[in-house]
C-alpha cells in the first residue's frame, strides 16, 4: 500500500492509499477517515459507495461527514467507483458506463469480466485490507449515493449478516428497469436478463431472508427521480414482502452533494446506533 | 442579474447569479446562501473571500458551512476571486496572478487597472447588489481563506464601521513581505512600494483607529506557513499597536478546505455573536 496523502480533518486523519487489488487485477485508490478515537482503540467502519463520475474523493470533500464521524468514533472508507487501469473499447466514452461507473457488480462480459469485479472488491477484498492495516473492528455498515446507493443496498441485501446497517441517498433501486441500469447491466452482464436479478435491489428484496432495515433519503426535486430512481418501486416491493423500509422524501432537494451534506448526519447516527456507538 | 442555479441546502437555498459589474466592467458570478430564516425576515450577511485558484463555488461545496448558517440565520455571500472576461498578457498563465488571483485590491497598473477592482467590487458594489435584491439587512461580517483571508482583513481594517466582525483562515497577513504578495502587488500596483502599504494587513494595523478584533485560525502543518503566511508578523504588529487579535495555531492542520471545514463553525458563531444572532 502506498500512502498518497494524509490530511488532518475534524480532529482525525483523512488518508488516501493506492494498492494492488487482486479482485480487479490492478491498482485501486481508496480514502479512509480515521476519527480521533482510532488513536486509542479500534473503531467500526462505514463504507461509502459513490455515484457515477465520482472517485474516492468526492464524499470526503463535499459531504461534510467528518465532524460527526469524529464525534461518534466512526471510520469511513470510500473506494473508487470502478477499476481504472484499462482501456477497453468504450470504457472511457460515457459517464454512465465503464470508468467511474462500475455499478458494484461482478462483470461477466468480456473484456469487462477481466477486471470489473467491484462487488468482490467492496464486499471481500477491501474490508480485509482495511481490517488488516488500520485500527478498526470487523463491525461495519454501508451507505452510498445514486449508483453507490444501489451498491450499498445490494451489498447489504446479499450479505445481511456482514453489515450492521445500510442506508442510501437517492439510490438506483431497480436498475433492471431504468436506462442507467439497463445500459450498465447489458454491457457488464450481457443480454440475459435472468442474470441481472442478483444485482437489483427490488428483486433481491423478494428473496431476502434476513430483513435488514433499509434507510433511504430521496430528494423530491431530483432530476433523475422519475426516469432512473423510482423509489416507489422500492416502497412497493418492501410493502409486499414486509421488508422494513424508512423512505424519506425530502422536499426541494436535488441529486447533489448539497442534499447529501444536509442529511448525512442522520445517516451517520443511524449507523452509529446499529454499531452500538450511541 | 441572471440566476444560474438554485439548490436546496440545509433547509435554505444556495443560489448562483451572473451580473454585469460596474466596478470590474464585466460579468461577475457570485453565490449566496440564504438560510431558512430569510423566508420570514431579513438576515445579516457574512461575506466569504476565497483563495488563489478558487471561484464562488469552492466554499459552498467544501466548507460545510450551510448547516450552521441555517441554524444561526446567517446568509453567506461568496464572490469570485477575480474578474474573468479579459485576456491581458500573462493574465491566465500562473495560479497566483491574474485570473482567480485578484487579491481584493484596486489595480493601478495597465491593463489590469481597467478591470481588476476587486476591492471596490467586494466593499461597495456587491453589498449594494445583495442588499437591493435579497432579504438581508445591512449588517455584515467578512471572512476568507489565504488570499481571501488577506482580503477579509484589509476590507475590515479599511472599513471597520462597515463590518460587525472579521475572521480569517491562514491569511496572507503581510503581502508586501512574501512572494505571493510581492508578485501580485508588483503586477497590479507597480514597483512603488509606498503604494502597497494600503493593501497590507500588518501595515494597516499600525494606523488602525477603530480596533476591530481579529479572529484568525492557522494550521501549523500549512505548507505555506513560513514563506507566505507568517502569522508571527501579525502577532508582532498587533502586540505593538495593542490591536486585539485571537490567533489560534491549530496543530496538524494544513492549508486545505479540510482545515476550514474543521473550524468554520467557530467562525460562524464568532460572527453570529457580533451580529447579535446568538
Rg of chain A, rounded, reads 17 Å
Q: Strands across the major sheet of chain A, in which order?
A: 1-2-3-5-4-6-7-8-9
Please, how many helices of chain A? 9
- SSE ordering of chain A: EEEEHHEHEHEHHEHHEH
Largest protein interface?
A-B, 23 and 23 residues
Total strands of chain A: 9
* Global geometry of chain A: globular
Mean pLDDT of chain A: 98
The percentage helix of chain A is 25-40%
Oligomer: homodimer
* Low-confidence parts of chain A: none
Give the N-to-C terminal Cα separation of chain A.
Answer: 33 Å
Structural class of chain A: alpha/beta
Biggest sheet architecture of chain A: 9 strands, mixed
Strand residue content of chain A: 15-25%
General description of the model:
Two copies of one chain form a homodimer. Chain A contains nine helices and nine strands. Chain A has 278 residues and is of the alpha/beta class. Chain A is globular, with a radius of gyration of 17 Å. At the A-B interface, strand 1 and helix 9 of A face strand 1 and helix 9 of B.
Characteristics of this structure?
9 helices, alpha/beta, homodimer, 33% helix, 278 residues, 9 strands, 9-stranded mixed sheet
